[in-house]
Write a structure and sequence with these properties.
about 450 residues, FAD/NAD(P)-binding domain, Enolase-like, domain 1, 3 domains, 7-stranded mixed beta sheet, 5-stranded antiparallel beta sheet, 12 helices, about 30% helix
Length: about 450
């Protein structure tokens, strides 16, 4: 490929990785007049589009229909015997992902970004090698994301990760999931909803570390009521192939039989083969690239954004980091990523949405806080007979009345918390919630009708 050099470089910016952060940075830098190239060794869109949030949410939707068919009877509907076709779901999912890949390609082409297919490697601070050809750039941005991490357990070669799950040839009857983060929890709900017998192991005493404890406890109860076998304080000693599937031996000595062993026990930054050591880009003990508040690495003309930096590994955060980088370096508008009050969700069943401080974090930072809770049966379930409950919670600074965090477990929690996140970012106080009229009848109105704080813990 021939490129026109300017100021002695082939490009003003060379981006390694076309995931969420890399694509945003590339498009914005090009919009601001930079000559930009982006290299991707796999598919455009990165983890989120191809083997992450997008296909996973599609599978979550699919798994919910089991509940919908069951609940329909309470509303007068008679539904025939439902049948589920895993192969059809995966084919439809693949078609949508292929469409999104083309959308990303079109967005980059439309912005004037040069797309290079292949594995890029840094040769020196201004030179990148790809496919036997060298390219030079004034600035380099690394946005290669992360990948699932597998522990050194005997028989680990028999396990799959979230990457492979999306291409399973058939739905397994028995699934063993190892991990306690949002990926493990979400896939436990997905497989259970599709009819698999699910066991989830987690080495800690309660999963979803970092989320509000009340919601974690309530979710564990709800998942058990759905038939998911949750085993905390448990871990795998070894995995062995058997005639009918796999035998997993726990550290306790107990053995479990399963058709699929899925690990969702952490991720590691994608830095292998990038040539970082040859240009002295500093990394931490986990392999993540070390950056400053403007995403600049230890090498002045090299930056990094997204999961490869292991700061806050969420797609919208990577996009924000890429945007801030482009604004700073190519638009004369210095911006730093802001990690305060970032809303997030776990598409568990029931789902969990949260923004701001948990009760535990708020008590550690403020002299006195008030906790408001609403705990109720969703209106839909009064006729369907389902026994799941919704939990809503506000953490408030007692002195100023400022709302420090909002948390919800229940249907549509992500949709509801997204709106509340705007208010919390704006510094909303509890009195503002109290003055807001609710939309009746909705679950969301409970956030503006909680009036009495609960008693402080004894």
């Amino acid at each position: 490929m021939e490129v026109m050099k300017r100021h002695g470089f082939d490009f003003d910016l060379f981006v390694v990785g076309a995931g969420s952060g890399g694509v945003r940075a590339s498009r914005m830098a090009a919009k601001f007049g930079a000559r930009v190239a982006v290299a991707e060794s796999q598919r455009l869109g990165g983890t989120c589009v191809n083997v992450g949030c997008v296909p996973k949410k599609l599978l979550v939707y699919a798994s919910h229909f089991a509940d919908d068919f069951e609940d329909a009877a309470g509303f007068g509907w008679t539904v025939g015997e439902p049948r589920f076709d895993w192969a059809r779901l995966i084919a439809n999912k693949d078609r949508e992902i292929a469409r999104l890949n083309q959308v990303y390609r079109g967005l980059l082409h439309g912005a004037g970004v040069t797309i290079l297919d292949g594995q890029a490697r840094l040769v020196d601070p201004n030179t990148i090698e790809l496919g036997g050809q060298n390219f030079t750039a004034d600035k380099i941005l690394i946005a290669t994301g992360s990948r699932p991490q597998l522990p050194e357990v005997p028989g680990i070669e028999h396990a799959v990760t979230s990457n492979e799950v999306f291409q399973l040839p058939k739905l397994p009857s028995r699934v063993l999931i190892v991990g306690g983060g949002y990926i493990a929890v979400e896939f436990a709900g997905i497989f259970a909803g599709m009819g698999s017998q699910v066991t989830q192991l987690y080495r800690g005493s309660l999963f979803l570390r970092g989320f509000d404890r009340d919601l974690r406890i309530e979710l564990a109860e709800a998942m058990r009521n759905r038939g998911i076998d949750l085993r905390f304080d448990s871990d795998v000693a070894r995995i062995e192939k058997s005639a009918s599937g796999y035998v997993v031996t726990l550290l306790s000595g107990q053995q479990l039989e399963t058709d699929l062993v899925m690990y969702a026990a952490g991720r590691t930054p994608n830095t292998v083969g990038l040539g970082l050591s040859s240009v002295a880009v500093a990394q931490d003990q986990s392999g993540a690239i070390v950056v400053d508040e403007y995403s600049r690495t230890s090498v002045p003309n090299i930056w990094a954004v997204g999961d490869v930096t292991n700061r806050m590994n969420l797609t919208p955060v990577a996009i924000a980091e890429g945007q801030a980088f482009a604004e700073t370096e190519f638009n004369g508008n210095p911006q730093k990523p802001d990690y305060d009050n970032v809303p997030t969700a776990v598409f568990s069943q029931p789902s969990l949405g949260t923004v701001g401080l948990t009760e535990e974090a708020a008590r550690g930072r403020y002299a006195a806080i008030d906790i408001y809770k609403a705990h109720f049966r969703p209106m839909k379930y009064t006729l369907s007979g389902r026994n799941e409950r919704t939990l809503m919670k506000l953490c408030v600074d007692k002195e100023s009345g400022k709302v420090l965090g909002a948390h919800m477990l229940g249907p549509d929690s992500a949709e509801i918390i997204q709106g509340i996140a705007i208010a919390i970012r704006a510094g909303v106080r509890k009195v503002d919630f109290d003055r807001t009229l609710g939309i009746h009848p909705t679950a969301a109105e409970e956030f503006v009708t909680m009036r009495t704080p609960q008693s402080p813990p004894g």
